[in-house]
From TrEMBL:
SMART domains the UniProt entry points to: AAA
Protein name (record): ABC transporter for sugars, ATP binding protein
Residues annotated as domain ABC transporter: 3-233
Keyword annotations from UniProtKB, A to Z: ATP-binding, Nucleotide-binding, Transport
Keyword Transport part of the UniProt annotation: yes
InterPro entries: AAA+_ATPase, ABC_transporter-like_ATP-bd, ABC_transporter-like_CS, ABC_transpr_MalK/UgpC-like, Mo/tungstate-bd_C_term_dom, P-loop_NTPase, Transp-assoc_OB_typ2
Highest taxon, organism lineage: Bacteria
Coiled coil: none
GO cellular component term of the entry, any: ATP-binding cassette (ABC) transporter complex, substrate-binding subunit-containing
One GO MF term attached to the UniProt entry: ATP hydrolysis activity
Lineage start: Bacteria, Bacillati, Cyanobacteriota, Cyanophyceae, Synechococcales
Amino acid sequence: MNLVLQNIGRRFGRNWIVRHLDLEVGQGECLALLGPSGCGKSTTLRLIAGLDQPNEGSITIAGEDVTKVSPIDRRIGMVFQSYALFPHLTVFANLALGLQVRGISATDRKQRVASVLALMQLEDLAERHPAELSGGQRQRVALARALLRDPLVYLLDEPMSNLDAQLREDLRPQLRNLILQGSQPVIYVTHDQHEAMAMAHRIAVMRDGKIEQIGTPQELYNNPLSLFVASFVGRPQINLLPAESGIIKAIRPEHIQLSSDGIPCRLVYREWLGTSQLLILESNRGPLRMLCASEITIPETIMLNWSPEKEHQFNASSGERC
Ligand SMILES: Nc1ncnc2c1ncn2[C@@H]1O[C@H](COP(=O)(O)OP(=O)(O)OP(=O)(O)O)[C@@H](O)[C@H]1O
């Protein structure tokens, strides 16, 4: 079971929103689409779901070309940021509706909804309406609904972005156990790179409707192929230092060290992060961010350095890795 996008393009008027997009997500693989607002993540998901039609290219699910297949026949399990539950229906009815539309008998519906309610620990909430649930509970109902579709592909569109940090932490293992351990390919759209790194086997970084780089979280972090990816992946953001001959040198804040013979710096700001601290420093090469253990006492003026193998170099005009 896999999902293949070949040369997908979608335009609105004369503007291509997504262009020349090739993507393959394998059986049981979770691929995160990560990128700034407006880069085309939701458009890509809508095209896969069949909620929108590409102007170019083809979409194949489990070996079958579904480019012209209606959304209902694509067997997609979709979970939206907004939950998309029917407000006038109870939790039970929200879950049973899709089964009813697919012609499943009342007895079967009851049984299947009951089992997914038990799995998601939602039994006590079956008769409530969405307005009577917390955000986390609503999202669990939306997940339960996606599971009930018995889909060939899961599409998760910022499924946790409406939830607070604690709820996200609680829901993450459930998401992993229920969806990411299945055999279906999963596409996970998120703004949140921590979430992408935690959940996905591979990440596709999108920019202006194209894939800028695709790889494991480690590959993107250790070997960004462009300035854009280097700056987008990894927080606190990588330091960029203009150098001679049209080169920009980049060094991650955690790779900067105190040294006796480095760049002289002045500490301007310190943020305590628990196990680490973020230091904002001023130097004659521009501002620098440094991340170090929180117990280290930093004087106001220091010298900083880093090992050359930790440095990345990019062409200043093309943004490509040198
Ligand atoms: N129906 C439409 N008509 C015209 N332009 C559209 C339409 N739908 C989306 N767009 C444009 O396409 C671009 C990509 O939108 P899309 O929603 O896919 O981005 P996104 O990466 O999901 O952004 P976000 O992270 O903010 O949700 C945006 O510039 C948006 O304004």
